[in-house]
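Researcher: Please translate sequence to structure tokens.
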Amino acid sequence: MLAETLTALAAAGGAAVAQAAGTDAWSGFRQGMARLIGQGDPEREQDATRQLERTAALLAAEQGDDEARMLRQVEQSGVWQGRFESLLESLDDARRGQAAAGLRALLQTYAEPAGGASAPGGVAANRDVTNRAEARDGVATGLNYGGFIFQVPRLPDPPQG
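Model: Translation complete:
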């Protein structure tokens, strides 16, 4: 099992792949990611390039439909998080550290500026967001890509009389 920091790094890598696909930075980002995933094996690097191109094609197919594209980005973010976790788990400690440093460097070079993106009507935040339901049987929902704390609201005091 990966350390929490490496799991978070894998999640950031997955999100970056889903966000970078189809952008002006995609070519360099794709090449760097394929090299990272290939770990010096040309066949693995070519396979990673094909997988990255498949992701870009899936996202491009959703152009014009913001909600569908956002859902596809969420899906692909999870797919790539899993791939990065598998890669990091498969390496010995020294190579894992090198791969993690390489992934961090790619993210620093190509990461989207703070602010993120959300589907129409959604909220993207790089900080705390409070989502409350005020009614006794109310429900507050949300889609989360980071740390999440769920708190049940305190019930009001019974009437005094």
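Researcher: Any highlights?
Model: The CA atoms of residues 8 and 146 lie 8 Å apart.
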